[in-house]
Design goal:
Helix content: 10-25%
Number of helices: 6
Distance between the termini: 19 Å
CATH topology of the largest domain: Pseudouridine synthase
Strand content: 35-45%
CATH architecture of the largest domain: 2-Layer Sandwich
Order of helices and strands: EHEEHEEEHEEEHEEHEEEHEEEE
Number of strands: 18
Number of domains: 3
CATH superfamily of the largest domain: Pseudouridine synthase
Largest sheet: 9 strands, mixed
């Protein structure tokens, strides 16, 4: 068995606790998620199970969509309302036109620094552990992310609500903090709902308590961004046994990871192309594959 559940994570539990709840519900030990949501955040958390957990590194590359609520005039050690707060302006009034101009600076490819209270690892140790140990001298690594859309939903005195479409790896807490810095008033994240991960939308998400064997989501749309190779007969047997094999349908100058399917369009796994050869990287039981839509 393998597949994916589009879970609607409620406010409160950690992403790991949601995964454990799914594990108990379906009785399968191998479970994982494709992108952490903090405890105070809610929304779409894709949870994969069985041999599909081998695909997490590819599934987590999907773009994401959020509804973010940002408190202006306040900064936080964690960049959200869970940390130690510093109030800079209690009677703040922000002009929506000013906000619109500032948001243009954060659209497209930008450089971010993750919050010190995050799970990003430096020298094998999570940043939040450095923060808890009082080590403020640790150098936080920057990362390049992409903000596809950044739209204002509302601006009400000191509360800004945004719809954000972004690449994987984007820290919305850092985005809120940086927007506050550019506005000159400070800001931190006060609410977050993830409304979409790739093809999985909040409207189709299910509460963890409602999970059962018959309401899994289709795995294949989340991998549809990858190039595909279709195998037949003996080539399927070779791939499933982990053997590298030349393939006449592959051009010698083609390279990189591809989605490997059989003639029924069922998922066999992930392969790597090089000089006309197909090397199995991840092999999944084809007899229980997921069909493409």
């Amino acid at each position: 068995m393998f597949g994916i559940y589009c879970v609607n994570k409620p406010f409160g539990p950690t992403s790991h606790q949601i995964v454990n709840a799914v594990r108990r519900k379906i009785g399968i030990k191998k479970c994982g998620h494709t992108g952490t949501l903090d405890p105070f955040a809610s929304g779409v958390l894709p949870v994969v199970y069985g041999s599909a957990t081998r695909l997490i590194q590819y599934l987590q590359l999907e773009p994401k969509e959020y509804i973010a609520t940002i408190k202006l005039g306040v900064t936080s050690t964690t960049y959200d309302m869970e940390g130690e707060l510093t109030i800079h302006n209690e009677n703040l009034v922000i002009d929506s036109r000013e906000v619109s101009e500032i948001l243009k600076l954060f659209t497209g490819r930008i450089v971010q620094y993750p919050p010190i209270f995050s799970a990003v690892k430096v020298k094998g140790k999570a940043l939040y552990r450095y923060a808890r140990d009082g080590d403020d001298d640790i150098e936080i690594p920057s990362r390049e992310v992409e903000i596809f859309k950044l739209d204002i939903i509302s601006v009400e005195s000191d509360v800004l609500k945004l719809k954000i479409e972004c690449s994987s790896g984007t820290y919305i807490r850092s985005l809120a903090h940086d927007i506050g810095s550019k506005l000159g008033c400070g800001a931190c994240l006060s609410g977050l709902m993830r409304t979409r991960v790739g093809p999985y939308h909040i409207d189709d998400a299910i509460h963890p308590d409602d999970i059962h064997d018959n309401n899994t989501s289709n795995l294949m749309p989340a991998l549809d961004y990858m190039n595909k190779v279709i195998l037949y007969n003996q080539d399927v047997i070779c791939f499933n046994s982990g053997r590298t094999r030349p393939n006449s349908s592959i051009k010698e100058d083609e390279s990189g990871d591809v989605l490997v399917l059989d003639s029924n369009r069922s998922l066999l796994g992930i392969g790597s192309l090089s000089e006309g050869y197909l090397k199995p990287s991840i092999v999944i039981n084809a007899s229980k594959g997921c069909k493409l839509l």
